[in-house]
Amino acid sequence: MIIPSKFRELLGDEFVITKGFDNCLAIYDLKNWEELQAKLATMPMTSSDARILRRMIVGSAGMLETDKQGRILLPAPLRSYAKIEKDAVVIGNIDHIEVWSKDAWEQTLDIDSDMAAEKLYNSGNNIVIFEHKSVLLNETVNSLNIKEDGIYVDGTLGGAGHASLVCSKLQDGKINRYRSR
After folding, report:
1. Given the DSSP bridges, would you call strands 25-29 and 15-19 parallel, antiparallel or unpaired?
2. Which member of 19, 20, 94, 109 has the greatest number of CB atoms within 10 A?
3. Which helix or strand (DSSP H or E) is residue 78 part of?
């Protein structure tokens, strides 16, 4: 398999390949691999889930380097794990590179990313991908001349800042959400 040149530059001469999540392979440069190992080392050995995760990631890891043409040979057990038979897709993912079978990658494109982000947020993992700032909030809401018993529809796609302020001015204000698919 050929590692794209932009990734080869980031990986350096030697790098680590291991099992990733969702049946892909993960490739780390040595610095990020050391950081991942340090994080894994903090996981409690009394937790069976932690032990399973450590075994999956560390136990399947191997050192690789590219040849002069930028090619690597994927170890057979990792190829089997990722179900890579012929075509592979290589993507960057913040601190590592992922290698997917073409079929598996195409299936990930069908995932509703908005729903996934909402589930992550609702689970208490408040990782903010972007922070929405309501624009002209008070000016807009004050211009509506809101009546306490009125019904108002906010059809914008923001973070409900305007709708929340409108509701605070209503006698029995509440927000009903509608998500179009």
Report:
1. antiparallel
2. 20
3. helix 76-81
